[in-house]
Design goal:
By secondary structure, the protein is α+β, with helices and mostly antiparallel strands. Helix content is about 50%, strand content about 5%.
Length: about 220
């Protein structure tokens, strides 16, 4: 029923899942979490049960208000429209367009190229491949942020762009990307990680986080 508590299907290390966890936390939406291990048993996302939930066999998926939504930005946009406070999209149309541009830059231009399913196809050079994809994207993103950033990606309010940035920086660190050339990205990421919504949703603090990776 529409009144039931939302259910988020998530993997602790999934950057797409982390974006949605941050949005839910910022908007104060309580939810139940169902872990989907993308590694165990050949990938639990490939089970018949999960395929029925999300035919793309990816996380996140969110059951909310009687519907099931997939794709992180579609979920975040729905949360923005149904729970408008605090805002994740600025009122000003130019700033709103910049937020969407930066979010798309990350979720379409960087993250899918170094995603688990792609790295499986790359084979032995997966680390080098991921580094190249992230470096190329971050070079452009650093340049963009120099024109749009205040405290955060666009001005001084947390936006959907920031929800995409922090998980992507975590990916960069995991793949040992040198962050030295990206001072703006680094500064914004550090500021965001001080916020409670980013802390409590961090991959090191999830129910399915392995013991050795817990904060």
């Amino acid at each position: 029923m529409a009144s039931e508590k939302p259910i988020l299907y998530s993997y602790f290390r999934s950057s797409c899942s982390w974006r949605v966890r941050i949005a839910l936390a910022l908007k104060g939406i309580s939810y139940d979490l169902v872990p989907v291990n993308l590694i165990k048993d050949g990938g639990q996302q490939f089970s018949a049960e999960f395929k029925a939930l999300n035919p793309m066999q990816q996380v996140p998926a969110l059951k909310i208000d009687g519907i099931t939504l997939c794709q992180s930005l579609a979920i975040i946009n729905y949360l923005e429209e149904t729970h408008p406070n605090p805002r994740l999209l600025p009122k000003d149309p130019k700033k709103r367009a910049q937020v969407r541009m930066i979010a798309d830059h990350i979720v379409s231009g960087i993250q899918p190229l170094q995603n688990l399913s792609v790295l499986k196809q790359v084979g032995e050079k997966k680390m080098e491949w991921a580094q190249n994809c992230i470096t190329s994207g971050f070079q452009a993103l650093e340049q963009i942020l120099q024109h749009t950033a205040g405290c955060y990606c666009v001005g001084d309010e947390v936006s959907m762009a920031d929800l995409c940035l922090v998980p992507q920086v975590a990916n960069a660190e995991r793949f040992k990307v040198d962050m030295g050339p990206y001072p703006t990205i680094t500064r914004i990421n550090k500021a965001l990680l001080e916020l409670e919504a980013f802390k409590i949703t961090h991959p090191s603090r999830q129910p399915d986080t392995p013991a050795e990776l817990r904060a």
